[in-house]
Structure formats: C-alpha cells, structure tokens
Amino acid sequence: MALKSTIFKAELQVSDLDRPYYGTHALTLARHPSETDERMMVRLFAFALYADDRLEFGRGLSAEDDPALWRKDHAGGIELWIDVGQPDERDVRKACGRANQVVVVSYGGRTTDMWWAENRQQFGRLGNLTVVNLPLEASQALARLAGRHMRLQCTIQEGQVWIGTESHSFHFEMGRWQIPVKRGGI
Q: How would CATH label the architecture of 7-178?
C-alpha cells in the first residue's frame, strides 16, 4: 500500500519591500512521504519570495513534469515556473522553453555549490532563468520551523530575509547566482 502525503497548513504573512508586495496567504502543503521538512519549507520560502494570488504549488515529487510552484496566466500559459533543489540541467532548459520566467531556489550547502559549478555555463545561456541560493544554515533553520499548523511572517528587503514565528525567528542573506537577461527596452 502506498504511503500518503502529510498535510501541513500555513498562514504566511509576506512583506516584500523590494517588489513591493504585502499579503497574507492561507496555504495547504502536501508533503510527499519521500520529501524532507527542509525541502517542504524551502518550497514555502519560494512561495514567500514570489507570493502572488495566482501562485500555486505543483503536484509534488510524484509529478515529474510539474514544478514546485507555478503561476499561470488566464489562458493557461505558464508565466512563472519555480523549482527547488538541484534540478537536472535538461529539466531546467525544458522549463525555460515552457515558461516566461523560471526560478530555481537551490539549497544544500556543498552539494549545491558542486551542482552550480557543473551547470553554471549552460544556465548562463538561458535568458529567462533566475537561480537563487539559500545558505545551508538558512534551509536547516527553515526545516526547524516546520509544523502541521504554522503561522509565519516573512520580510524581504534587498536580498535580506527575516522569517519566523511568534516565538522564533532568524535572518539570512540570499545568494543570487543568476538573474534574467533583460531583452530590449531600457
């Protein structure tokens, strides 16, 4: 008998001073049996980073052609594709062909550094790709915030992130390894 996903509920308050975006989201996260708290919370952080009323979680690890999160336009086209971890370069390239904007939120410390070194040159050719890196300490601290019912606040300003609950919070700086190339215009 197959194991079922565990359901987590989160109330997430986002204050993104860079965009500017301010909102509260009631979220339901399904954690696949093979998914760690760390990966699930990185998905939740990725939601905070790109929070929007149309941003949705993908079907999860069991659906290979789905991202961790995505935002579609009203016609069903993919505006934003977000993946977490260290996806295969071929999958990232495929996502860049399907979506207007692709974001990879990487985490994992040394393994992520090796993944970036191996893929950096190929990713540099993808003009609609953003690669963000979370320090190992940040992804591990996010994992410690995991609970079946969470109330989280996240503030983002100039690459600095403050995230936490009423009783515990922490701060970290995101690494921006690659940002999209602007085409045309100013």
A: Roll (3.10)
